[in-house]
Specification:
340 residues; alpha/beta; Spore Coat Polysaccharide Biosynthesis Protein SpsA, Chain A; eight-stranded mixed beta sheet; two-stranded antiparallel sheet; 38% helix; binds beta-D-galactopyranose; binds manganese (II) ion
């Protein structure tokens, strides 16, 4: 009898002491269940309860760092952050080959940016989605200046003639509109995934199917180790891209994002519409479409995140954390290129 009471007391005090652990476990199980169901097929808007919980638990995301103490490999909403050593490419290649997927790689070579195409395409042939079918979608106002590059089997260049704009900021932002338009008109019938990148870049190491997921974003090389408050989100409430100081998980780069055609369609639609509302209100977000992309990702959490291995600029040095530099900025003379 006395023993029984003692036991009960012990259980009570145990529960009291470890209440927070139990609470966390329950919350974790629910969110795991939610994200597991999401990762299976479609992505939904992230429920406001989860966004609310996330904004409270950290100023800087830290949840799983099993590789090395400085390498975050899982987000607080349980999706992978892709670094060298976190995946098995052989197994993934087999899975994606069985699905017989085609990947669309979109780039914009407007005005003088056509000068970047040759290196971009040649290095993509060496490193991008090796062994898979690829369509390079080249948006340009100068179709005659698209270089002829020798392509491996199953890979095509598709030139899409589009208009240009006088300001580079406008050219940059209109990418959302153009990707959106062609997603519905063409990409949906031709490819499974879209990868949308900057053209003033070169591939320097493998970028393969490990990046593919319903909706993925890339950590901006300048902010992957920063705290939330130093992210360069749009901070003016008058803009549609506004993100308050206590929200947001990462600062993502507009130079590398993607997902299924359906998800990229949804993302680009929302961003383009927000850009147009800003235009009507006479405001332009601080980092143009990148600000809108970041806003989108606060409320539609990506299902996979790419580490800065996938978007690097050697002017930032070569930190130890980077075991691979897969996709590198090509140095450019801004004045000579940007508005020309
Ligand atoms: C810079 C980059 C810009 C923009 C900005 C965000 O390094 O050149 O394109 O991404 O960071 O703060
Ligand atoms: Mn760029």
């Amino acid at each position: 009898m006395r023993k029984d009471k003692g036991k009960r007391r012990w259980v009570k005090s145990y529960l009291r002491k470890h209440f927070h652990i139990l609470g966390c476990t329950v919350v974790l199980s629910f969110s795991l269940g939610y994200f597991w169901s999401m990762s299976n097929d479609t992505c939904q808007d992230t429920p406001s309860k989860i966004i609310e919980a996330l904004r409270k638990i950290y100023s800087r995301p830290q949840i799983l760092k099993p590789l090395r103490p400085d390498v975050l490999v899982m987000t607080p909403w349980f999706v992978p952050i892709v670094w060298e050593g976190t995946y098995n490419l052989e197994i993934l290649n087999e899975q994606f080959q069985q699905r017989n997927i085609t990947v669309g790689l979109t780039v914009f070579a407007i005005k003088k940016y056509v000068v970047f195409l040759k290196t971009f395409l040649e290095t993509a042939e060496m490193y991008f989605m090796v062994g898979h079918k690829v369509n390079y979608y080249i948006f340009t106002d100068r179709p005659q200046e698209v270089p002829k590059v020798e392509l491996k089997e199953g890979r095509n260049v598709v030139v899409l003639q589009v208009q240009n704009y006088s300001r580079w900021q406008e050219i940059s932002m209109r990418r959302m509109e153009m990707i959106n338009h062609f997603s519905q008109k063409q990409f949906i019938n031709e490819v499974d995934y879209l990868v949308c990148v900057d053209v003033d870049m070169r591939f320097n190491d493998l970028v393969g199917v490990e990046i593919l997921s319903n909706l993925f974003g890339t950590l901006h090389p300048g902010f992957y180790g920063s705290e939330r408050r130093s992210f360069t989100y749009e901070r003016r409430p008058a803009s549609q891209a506004y993100v308050p100081h206590d929200e947001g998980d990462f600062y993502y780069a507009a130079a590398f994002f993607g997902g299924t055609v359906k998800e990229v369609y949804k993302l680009t639609k929302k961003c383009h519409e927000a850009i147009m509302v800003d235009k009507d209100n006479g405001i332009e977000a601080i980092w143009q479409e990148e600000s809108h992309l970041n806003k989108y990702f606060v409320y539609h959490k990506p299902t996979k995140i790419l580490s800065p291995e996938y978007l690097w600029d050697d002017s930032l040095g070569r930190p130890q954390i980077l075991r691979k530099r897969r996709f590198l900025a090509v140095p450019k003379d801004h004045d000579a290129i940007k508005n020309k």
